[in-house]
Amino acid sequence: MDIVISLDLLLVKRKMTLTELSQRVDVSVTNLSLLKNGKVKAIRFSTLGAICEALDCQPGDLLTYQPNTDS
C-alpha cells in the first residue's frame, strides 16, 4: 500500500484506547481497527476530521505516502 496509516502510533502518543476514540468520534471499534491495520480503501473526510479533532492532530500526522518500491 502506498498510504501508511499511523493511527496506532497516535493512539499511543495520546494515551488513548481504540474504544475511547470510537466513543469520541462515533465510529465503530471494528471500523477503526480496520483503519488502524490498513485494511481500508477509503475514509470519509468527516471521519478523518473527527479523528484529527479527537487526537489533536493533522491529517498528515495520520496518513503518509510511501512510494511502492515493487517493480
What does this structure look like?
- This protein has 71 residues and is mainly α.
- It has one domain (3-65): Orthogonal Bundle (434 Repressor (Amino-terminal Domain)), CATH 1.10.260.40.
- It is 54% helix and 8% strand.
- The protein is built from 5 helices and 2 strands.
- The protein has a two-stranded antiparallel sheet with strand order 1-2.
- The longest helix is centred in the last third of the chain and has 11 residues, at 45-55.
- It starts with a strand and ends in a 6-residue tail after the last strand.
- The mean pLDDT is 93.
CATH class: Mainly Alpha
Number of strands: 2
Residue ranges: pLDDT <50 for 5 or more in a row? none
Q: How much of the sequence is in beta strands?
A: 5-15%
* End-to-end gap: 13 Å
- State the helicity in percent bands: 40-55%
Overall structural class, as computed from helix and strand content, comes to mainly alpha
Residue-averaged pLDDT, rounded?
93
CATH topology: 434 Repressor (Amino-terminal Domain)
Q: How many individual helices?
A: 5
CATH architecture: Orthogonal Bundle
Shape: globular
CATH homologous group name: lambda repressor-like DNA-binding domains
Radius of gyration: 12 Å
The main β sheet shows up as: 2 strands, antiparallel
As laid out across the biggest beta sheet, the strand order is 1-2
